[in-house]
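$ run holo --ligand "zinc ion" --emit tokens
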Amino acid sequence: MQGYRASLLWFAPPDGGAPRALFEEDGLLVVGPDAQGRQVVQAIGAFGAVAAQYPQVPVQHFPGRIIAPGFVDMHIHYPQIDVIGSPASGLLPWLENYTFPEENRFSEPTHSAQAATFFIAELLRNGVTTALTFATSHTESVNALLAEAQARHMRMITGLVLMDRHAPTYLLNQGQGSLSGTEQSLRDTESLIQRWHGVDRLGYAITPRFAPTSTDAQLGGAGELAARYPDVWIQSHVAENKDEIAWARDLFPGSRSYLATYDDFGLMRQRAIYAHCIHFDDDDRALMRDTGAAAAVSPTSNLFLGSGFFDYEGADRVGYRYGLASDVGGGTSFSPFHTMLATYYVGREGQTKPGLSLSPQHLWWQHTAGAAAALGLAGENGAPSVGNLLPGCEADFIVLNPQATPLLARKTARANSLDELLFSLIVLGDDRAVEQTVISQAL
Ligand code: GUN
Ligand code: ZN
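-- output --
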């Protein structure tokens, strides 16, 4: 067992009300193995009280630092690290001119491995300890990322991108022998599930890129796999951009809406994560709620590509789950601080009902405990629990330095409340504030 003494930030267990952050100025976090040998939180609270319960445990002291849960990124593309900051008039030209050609490089295992190493280092440098990640339509890209994540003991979920039409030929799933590209992509998906899902801290996500680049046969096959492997994730994109929506409506005229297309193919359920979810009506929101699917809200991407704004009032009124995501490389930053700040702007200016002011606790929760709950990683039915530091949570945490820059030091020194402290970090923080990222290691 190991103790860590610092200021501590974590979240109260959900009670149906607004998410509530907890803070201990002089706290002690005790980490030790659970029955399966995983390093989990054993105790958290005021230093005096917890130290009295664990007198033998060695303690590492971080004076002036804040220990907080590792961030959870609900949607990011590892093959798009070199696409960040590529301007386009909107999503579809951006995909065609920058993203698709870049993703072609990932048919090369060496390139995939190099990119995976950089990507995971960058996540950890920014304090992100769990990520649901897009790879490409090449199995090599999936194997490279999961192998690297396994070596770093990181909780990583990814999957083979399914696309069998309406994209450059070089990026479509390729057939082998007598199997078509569609059939092969579904076989590869199942083999990859069997090879990786549940191994160490790795998870698999069935990954149709978005409905327009899959045939009915591919979406239907993906839905069958989703039914056969109920604890595997599903990830895709939906309702991001007006041109994309018109295209999807054209291709699937029998579905009630773009989102409903996924439901019609059996692709909406718990652990189904849809990026963006911007242009929804209330029936779409109810479908998210009733199926248990969740939205990955990606404000830096939505602002950069001019896609629109996630509707917080609509999501909360109807009551479906969501959390934050960088969506690199449509998104502009790996830093959860940048994403939380962009979320705040979207809350202020991008809402149909104006004047929303998302609280700093709510912003932080959306990128930690809230995102973990939306992913089905909050300990339900024996699932692991991440994104928080309650006893039993996997011990992924970050050590933040509130004095990392002169301005941050000046501002945080004047904070009179937890909200003021968190807001200072959200507005002024970035990777410089993340002094250390600690990953839970199995013993
Ligand atoms: N829709 C389909 N593919 C993509 C992608 O790579 N990025 C974003 N932002 N939207 C998409
Ligand atoms: Zn995306």
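-- notes --
The first strand starts at residue 2 and ends at 11.
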